[in-house]
Amino acid sequence: MKKISIIIPAYNEAEALPVLKERLDKLMESMENYEFEILFINDGSKDNTLEIIKEMRQEDERVSYIDFARNFGQEIAMMAGIDYATGDSVIIMDADLQDPPEIIPELVKYWEEGYDDVYARRKSRKGETWLKKFTAKMYYKVLQHVTRVEIQRDTGNFRLLDRRCVNALKKLRESQRNMKSMFSWIGYKKKEVLYDRDPRIAGKTKWNYMKLIDLAIDGITSFTTSPLRISTFIAIPTFIALFIYLIYVIAKCFIVHQVMQAYQAIILLILFFSGIQILLFGIIGEYLGRIFNETKNRPLYLVNEYNGEKERNE
Ligand code: UDP
Ligand code: MG
To answer: Is the pTM of this model over 0.85?
Structure first.
């Protein structure tokens, strides 16, 4: 029997957990051909999330948990789940039931058809402000523009991953992590499933705009080092301006017979030296980008098949 691990990071989710467990119980009952593991990661909760999880484990041996020493954040919590999961595939979902468990059978169906990463894409976002929707949309646009890896739109962390994706993700050990970029980076056979994202059933979101900006910057910088190229691109117009102004001043010398004025010399000097400085920053940026990529220590490639055999990535 194949085993599916459901990974659920939980931070102050005491109110949501009982309802979540009920819905998961129903789901597991309906999928009797599979073995399940529900793996909670208690991310340093301050309420009694841990006690509730422990109680659940006493009643139901399919429940296991990791208790973090403090709050490490959702990204790290998911990674711990990926490290500890024992299933043939894992499903990552939120504790607040924004990701409805009812679509899991569909995710599993596509997994059985041979897809490695079946991700749930939001058709709608209930209970979210237009500002959040708008910024999310713009963010995707920018992100896709600056990176060569294909990015899944309107997709959170809710997804099913085959064991080989899990093994691949385990190899990405950088400490500044962005899961979304990693799911894209590993590639493999992806399949999209549409769903309606529900509002959170209890408690409050742990996100605020400051955290979201952090996440957005993390996202961009972990996908690509192209922001470091900005100075190279600024250097080009600076030099063009220098060139045009130089021609203008020289032409004035010869045509109107006007000697070069002090202020003109100053403008030329400023353009010249600031251009050089910006260019040098760009060069440093290029090397910094290379160091940045190197220190991530990622595998160079991931193999899909070898001589027709699916690579498991162990
Ligand atoms: N979460 C976590 N650690 C944190 C913040 C959040 O493990 O520091 C969990 C949280 O319990 C939930 C999931 O990550 O299961 C998503 O968090 P939330 O619902 O607050 O985010 P949103 O859905 O509003 O983006
Ligand atoms: Mg949520």
So the answer is: no
pLDDT in tens, 45-60: 999 999 999 999 999 9
* pLDDT digit string, tens, across residues 131-151: 877 887 888 888 888 777 888
298 CB-near residues (< 8 Å, 6+ apart) = 171, 172, 174, 185
User: Which residues are registered as beta bridge partners of 65?
Assistant: 40
Query: Rounded to whole angstroms, how far apart are CA atoms 164 and 166?
Result: 5
Q: For residues 122 and 185, state if they share a domain.
A: yes
Q: Compute the C-alpha angle 287/169/119, nearest 5°.
A: 115
CA distance 121 to 155: 5
- Are the beta carbons of 288 and 245 closer than 8 angstroms? no
CATH assignment at residue 104: 3.90.550.10
Least confident of 41-45, 76-80, 151-155: 151-155
Pocket test for ligand 1, best of 45, 70, 74, 180 (most atoms within 8 A of CB): 74
**Cα(32) to centroid(ligand 1), Å:** 29
Residue nearest to atom 11 of ligand 1 (CA): 10
Tell me: do 93 and 208 sit in the same domain: yes
Q: Which domain holds residue 125?
A: 3-224+299-310
* Region of residue 99 (phi > 0: left; psi between -120 and 50: alpha; otherwise: beta): beta
Q: Examine the domain organization and report whether 178 and 277 are in the same domain.
A: no
CA distance 303 to 187: 10
Tens digit of pLDDT for each residue in 198-213? 777 777 777 777 877 8
Q: How far is the CA of 290 from the centre of ligand 2 (A)?
A: 35
Burial zone of 219 (CB within 10 Å; 0-12 exposed, 13-18 middle, 19+ buried): buried
pLDDT above 80 (res 78): yes
Instruction: Quickly list DSSP for 30-70.
Output: H-TTEEEEEEEEE-S-SSTHHHHHHHHHHH-TTEEEEE-SS
